[in-house]
């Protein structure tokens, strides 16, 4: 490997030498006596040199792990700068030669010389001309060289070639001329007389300049297009001997009008003179801006490549990374946008951002991209890119839908959880209700659907003439094992809501009462609607005729039941025969090929249980579904929270020691949880390699796990039950140097996907928030004369998980690589699981419910934020009494308090020192500060302080980096808002400029931000009294 590295370094030096030699040649070249072909030859070598550098540099990065990534980036940017300089120098020489030898477009240089037919050259495509005046000169020069002056061709052959080159209007000019050798010159002259018009060609170039497309978003690609369009026309006008040098005023004005607002603003900032700028000045500015954006794209590309590929691939297998653009025929597909084929990332694509969210999802799925980082070669469950900031799920924020958790049929053999049955009562009834309290019964029928083996299986169907297609629930399609196609159909429903469904192969549906059967195409959706009808119908209010009783299409028409199918207009009108029986003024039985169906209006008195609601047929996968109506995410979340609350009340208890024992709040997807053992083992082996390299980290990690075992918070599993549902949690280390007690914590990853793609957190409910907001606690903390703070020792680990649920909290662990991997089971609430925060804080609230003292009840419910206590009283005596009462109550629940601190030295002297726990009472000096819910508090002076860490301006400031800078300053109650408002106004101005998140700011904007942020250092001297 060392020899390979030396060879690559030597080759890289050779590449640099070649580039420097070309630059030196351009510097010393004499424009009066030099051979211009030497310039052209070197110009053609530059792409090859760039490609050789790319291959060589990538090889060095793979072989040399000792060099930091930033150094590799710097080397690439340095080479790119030298390459640009060399290319610009050669282009300048070519332009100088062109200006000195320019000629009229009517006479090409090639037409003056006879072609050397003895040289074997690569084949050249036949030129085409479609009537575009700007292409005439290049066309006629190419045609003359290839055919018109080719003495080896007969005139009739030239005529045929001329006709094959012309398209559209030009072909009409010579169409009427017979194709003979004698008529060739007549046709040739007719064509040149028509298009050999210098004045029209000049006007066409000027019109093209006036029609220059406007840049909407500043990027390297868009600015490059603008630059190319303007310069190609300007250079053409120069070649046509137009006084372009005297056109600075209108060329500069036109260019500025076609630039985006951000780039125009930066141009005005850079050009601070009062006289009229030259066109060369704005052209040079554009060239530099393009180079700056390309350099920024390099950094973004490198960072994202590292995140999306480097972290997930085998450390011994290196993927080739592409950072620089190559010739068009060698562009790496990974750098091309899948929608518009331009060179930018998908999330930067305007066409992609203009799509609706379902259309974006469909595009990402169709191209097999990761739903989190939008890159190829891996899937979301292998991606370490952050989850959606809006909902925390495994997808990109650009793919976020207002989702409703998907429901499936609960497994009766599951461990006790929260079933869907308890959710589908009266809160979201699927029934069309009127304001008067009346309801409409929808037509339902039980039909036979042939499964994969051709065996008829009963399914309950809703008959709907308003649907153009037929639907089946995903659960029903899976139970029947129906074959699917690769075809996905976009559907549009009420309020133009869109969704995508998958089509099944044709399915046979038949009646239970006769020989009727038909073959239909069904489309799979996760959910059709809630149970129909929404309430039990009083059958004594429905008089069923004898002729109907034995021929009911749905014998359970009055009992709420699940809907498996929706039969649309394709078969709806075929089913209805026409006979009907009115049993009341509002109810009617209709005869169909499936049996008699009941429809009509039902009054509230005809329901056993009734509650007015709106029609809410919805797809639970997303409220953006084509079948969604009037269901909000907030309503569903509120319903889930009520279920979790009820589940806690029904299942929690306290053991003989007083400790809380709780059960995990599973949703109905728990039965879909897959195998996770292999994934957890692989993650542990990666962690083990890290611990072996970092000895100090390894010692601290194993000490933490040993404490887990010593405190009986986890136990070794010797005998495993293969039939038991399990889940293995990966774990890793998180260090916090500012912590007084625990510098290292082991965090468990409950979001790691199993073999089915679902994680433990996916099958758990989160639970409601049961404690006050942080703002309310901090404001109340400022009102007391005497205050004290504390926190609960290892709060999560003080609460036990029910033994039946512990199999879903298993881990793999061993102390050293020489030992065998062992299975352990976590016995307590585990940090990293979705319901951990709710279960622990809900136990605290339950403790308050059981307390009889009203003041103590208020403290426990209102002065705790998770495990942190911030409370106070008017006097020291009252505070000390509260201290003793809190200690007593929480100790009985095995929730001990520690890290007691107060602004009163008298109170601190009353709190004893615990020899078993040195952190029971904090012993602080007069200058010491502690973190109080993120705020720095100095108890001795009873003041709040703000500490800004060291800040170094990033090399490339962007809107994203500025937002990160301002958010580093934690001020939850707005104490320093008057200071920070200036920075937030600056950010707001960037928003108005419509700058991209990762666009590099101009030097002037960066300097303004550095001045502002550096001034914040004076906040270190600021102290704000706690008491108000």
TrEMBL record:
PROSITE patterns given in the database record: ASP_PROTEASE
Gene Ontology molecular function, alphabetical: aspartic-type endopeptidase activity
GO terms (BP aspect): DNA biosynthetic process; proteolysis
InterPro entries: Aspartic_peptidase_AS, DNA/RNA_pol_sf, DUF1759, Peptidase_aspartic_dom_sf, Retrotrans_Pao
Protein known as: Uncharacterized protein
Pfam families in the record: DUF1759 (PF03564), Peptidase_A17 (PF05380)
Originating species: Sipha flava (yellow sugarcane aphid)
């Amino acid at each position: 490997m060392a020899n390979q590295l030396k060879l690559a370094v030597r080759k890289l030096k050779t590449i640099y030498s070649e580039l420097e030699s070309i630059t030196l040649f351009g510097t010393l070249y004499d424009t009066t006596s030099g051979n211009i072909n030497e310039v052209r030859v070197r110009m053609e070598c530059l792409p090859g040199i760039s490609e050789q550098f790319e291959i060589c540099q990538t090889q060095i990065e793979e072989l040399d792990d000792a060099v930091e990534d930033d150094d590799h980036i710097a080397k690439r940017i340095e080479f790119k700068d030298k390459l640009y300089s060399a290319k610009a120098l050669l282009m300048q020489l070519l332009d100088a030669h062109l200006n000195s030898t320019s000629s009229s477009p009517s006479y090409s240089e090639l037409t003056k010389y006879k072609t050397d037919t003895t040289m074997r050259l690569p084949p050249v495509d036949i030129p085409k001309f479609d009537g575009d005046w700007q292409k005439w000169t290049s066309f006629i020069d190419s045609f003359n060289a290839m055919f018109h002056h080719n003495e080896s061709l007969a005139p009739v052959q030239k005529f045929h070639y001329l006709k094959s080159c012309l398209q559209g209007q030009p072909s009409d000019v010579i169409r009427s001329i017979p194709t003979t050798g004698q008529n060739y010159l007549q046709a040739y002259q007719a064509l040149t007389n028509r298009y050999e018009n210098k004045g029209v060609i000049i006007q066409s170039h000027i019109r093209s300049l006036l029609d220059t497309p406007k840049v909407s978003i500043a990027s390297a690609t868009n600015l490059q297009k603008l630059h190319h369009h303007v310069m190609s026309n300007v250079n053409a006008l120069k070649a046509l001997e137009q006084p372009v040098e005297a056109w600075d005023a209108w060329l500069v004005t036109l260019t500025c009008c076609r630039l985006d607002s951000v780039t125009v603003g930066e141009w005005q900032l850079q050009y601070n003179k009062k006289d009229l700028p030259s066109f060369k000045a704005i052209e040079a500015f554009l060239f530099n801006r393009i180079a700056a954006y390309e350099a920024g794209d390099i950094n973004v590309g490198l960072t994202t490549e590292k995140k999306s590929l480097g972290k997930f691939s085998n450390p011994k297998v290196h993927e080739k990374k592409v950072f620089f653009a190559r010739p068009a025929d060698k562009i790496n597909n990974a750098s091309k946008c899948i929608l518009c084929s331009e060179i930018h990332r998908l999330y930067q694509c305007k066409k992609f951002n203009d799509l609706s969210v379902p259309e974006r999802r469909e595009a990402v799925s169709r191209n097999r991209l990761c739903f989190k980082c939008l890159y190829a070669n891996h899937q979301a469950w292998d991606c370490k890119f952050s989850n959606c900031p809006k909902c925390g799920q495994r997808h990109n924020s650009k793919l976020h839908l207002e989702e409703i958790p998907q429901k499936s049929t609960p497994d009766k053999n599951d461990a006790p959880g929260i079933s869907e049955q308890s959710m589908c009562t009266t809160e979201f009834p699927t029934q069309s209700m009127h304001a008067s309290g009346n309801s409409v019964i929808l037509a339902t029928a039980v039909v036979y659907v042939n499964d994969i083996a051709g065996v008829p299986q009963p399914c309950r169907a809703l008959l709907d003439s308003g649907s153009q297609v037929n639907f089946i629930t995903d659960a029903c399609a899976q139970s029947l094992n129906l074959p699917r196609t690769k075809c996905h159909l976009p559907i549009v429903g009420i309020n133009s809501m869109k969704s995508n469904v998958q089509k099944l192969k044709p399915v046979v549906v038949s009646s239970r009462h006769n020989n009727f059967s038909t073959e239909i195409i069904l489309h799979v959706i996760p959910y059709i609607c809630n149970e129909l009808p929404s309430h039990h119908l009083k059958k004594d209010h429905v008089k069923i005729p004898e002729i109907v009783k034995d021929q009911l299409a749905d014998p359970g028409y009055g009992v709420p039941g699940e809907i498996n199918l929706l039969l649309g207009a394709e078969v709806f009108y075929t089913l209805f025969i026409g006979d009907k029986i009115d049993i009341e003024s509002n109810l009617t039985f209709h005869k169909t090929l499936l049996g008699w169906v009941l429809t009509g209006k039902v009054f509230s008195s005809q329901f056993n249980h009734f509650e007015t609601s709106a029609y809410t047929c919805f797809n639970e996968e997303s409220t953006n579904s084509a079948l969604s109506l009037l269901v909000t995410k907030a309503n569903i979340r509120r319903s889930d929270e009520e279920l979790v609350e009820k589940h806690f009340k029904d299942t929690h208890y306290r053991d003989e020691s007083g400790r809380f024992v709780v059960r995990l709040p599973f949703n109905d997807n728990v039965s879909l949880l897959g195998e996770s053992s292999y994934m957890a083992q692989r993650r542990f082996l990666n962690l083990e390699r890290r611990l072996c390299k970092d000895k100090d980290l390894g010692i601290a990690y194993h000490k933490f796990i040993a404490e887990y075992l010593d405190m009986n918070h986890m136990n070794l599993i010797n005998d495993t039950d293969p039939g038991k549902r399990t889940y293995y949690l990966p774990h890793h280390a998180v260090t916090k140097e500012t912590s007084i007690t625990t510098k290292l914590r082991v965090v468990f990853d409950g979001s790691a996907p199993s073999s089915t793609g679902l994680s433990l957190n996916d099958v758990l409910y989160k639970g409601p928030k049961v404690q006050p907001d942080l703002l309310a606690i901090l404001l109340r903390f400022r009102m007391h004369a005497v205050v004290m703070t504390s926190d609960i020792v290892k709060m999560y680990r003080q609460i036990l998980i029910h033994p039946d649920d512990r199999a879903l909290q298993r881990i793999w662990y061993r102390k050293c690589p020489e030992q065998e991997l062992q299975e352990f089971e976590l016995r307590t609430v585990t940090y990293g699981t979705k319901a951990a925060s709710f279960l622990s804080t809900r136990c605290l609230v339950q403790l308050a419910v059981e307390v009889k003292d009203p003041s103590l009840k208020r403290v426990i419910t209102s002065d705790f934020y998770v495990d942190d206590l911030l409370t106070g009283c008017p006097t020291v005596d009252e505070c000390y009494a509260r201290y003793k009462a809190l200690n007593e109550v929480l100790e009985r629940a095995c929730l001990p308090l520690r890290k007691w601190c107060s602004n009163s030295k008298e109170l601190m002297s009353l709190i004893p020192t615990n020899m078993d726990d040195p952190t029971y009472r904090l012993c602080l000096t007069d200058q010491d500060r502690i973190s109080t819910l993120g705020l720095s508090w100095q108890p001795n002076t009873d003041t709040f302080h703000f500490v800004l860490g060291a800040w170094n301006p990033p090399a490339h400031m962007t809107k994203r980096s500025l937002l990160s800078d301002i958010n580093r300053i934690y001020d939850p109650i707005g104490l320093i808002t008057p200071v920070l408002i200036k920075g937030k106004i600056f950010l707001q101005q960037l928003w108005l400029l419509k700058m991209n998140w990762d666009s590099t700011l101009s030097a002037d904007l960066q300097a303004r931000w550095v001045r502002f942020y550096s001034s914040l250092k004076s906040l270190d001297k600021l102290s704000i009294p706690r008491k108000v």
